[in-house]
Write the structure tokens for this entry.
Amino acid sequence: MRKLRGKASLRLALGLSALLIVFSLGAMALQYRATAAELERRERSLLAADLAGLAALYDQRRIIALRQAMEFRSAAAPETGMLYLLEGKDGEKLAGNIDAMPEGLTPTPGEIDATDPVNFTLAATPYLGVARELRGGFPMLVARSRAPTEAALAATRAQILATALVLVALSLVAGWLVSRFIMRRIDRLNRLADQVAAGDLSARLPGPRADDEFGALERHIHTMLDRIGHLTRAHGRLSDTIAHELRTPLNRIQGKLDKLEGDPEAIAAVSSEIRGTVRIFDSLLEISSAEAASGGGTGLVPVSLSQITREVTELYEPLAEEKALDYGAVLQEGCKLLGDRNLIAQLISNLVDNAIKFCRAGDAITISLEEGPERHLLCISDTGPGVPAEAREAVFERFARAERDREVAGHGLGLALVRAIATRHGAKLRVLDVEKGFSIEIAWPKLPPDMG
């Protein structure tokens, strides 16, 4: 049922099928009513014709002729399904094929006509008839069996039910087939979207394009991806060129400063600024390199996430002790994945370094690694100043710095590099909602079983 709720195409197809069924059943109901009305009109017409003949004889020769006609017609009554009865003033049977007036049926004074016929049942058979009391006190009954009409209506109902069942079955099958056809086309687009989301801007849909709305959409998506790829490559080339071109003159300036004699403090300050600028460009190049490789498995090999995390944790332990931080780690062994060992170590180092940098004496830093149902979960939490909820997504942008960062030196590229490395490995970043401090969770994809 959950899968049914989740497929809009199937719901749409079934909805249209249901609408078709409702309209079809409505049309069948109207046709049934029209058939029933026509059969009833025919019954009344035949009954009226029979009564008209008897009325003509009665007008000419009164009771004698009416009695003779009823006796003659009663002989053929079993084939025609007719009831006839003519009684005398004292209630004795004068003519007809039944012995007495049916129970509950009272003749009304009047002429022999089909005005206001009544429905009644005799011996489990339904009838439509007219009961009159003729002048002189002679009760008379003429009725026509409704059994053929009821049988015809029953057959019509059975046919409508069978048609409805077939229509429902065909509609469900048609809805399912239409849904499958639409979902195949949509799944193609979803697979392409997943590849692009994973960083593969060169991904394209295979096969020829159909000459329909889906084909037009696929062509438009390809054109859009071509344009995005072109702009991304141009942006990457520009960033790389700027970084490369500026690093060289900065390094030359640094070399010349090292040879200068003068105010050591001034030279050291300028040298420090230059080295900081070079590190910015190095970080930009590293981010560009990681982003360029996103979505591909080239260069990734089986590595132990547990071992890398433990090594980085131990590396920063002296620095945490120096700042009097409550520093600890709970790491599950055996967590492996496809990755670049150096990049993963850099990601963890950036997060731990940030936590130590912003925490004050007495704050706590906790590093945990556990194997989840589908992914390895690495969580780095601290009880430092934290980041406002509205700024949590922005801290992963290049050169983004939260309010807490103003008092600490930095260039705002550390978390941007973290995101780029995570994307490179297909990992998912999530900033956790904690009461105090900053907590980030990275969900790493597990090593495929055939590579374990």
In short: The CA atoms of residues 277 and 448 lie 41 Å apart.
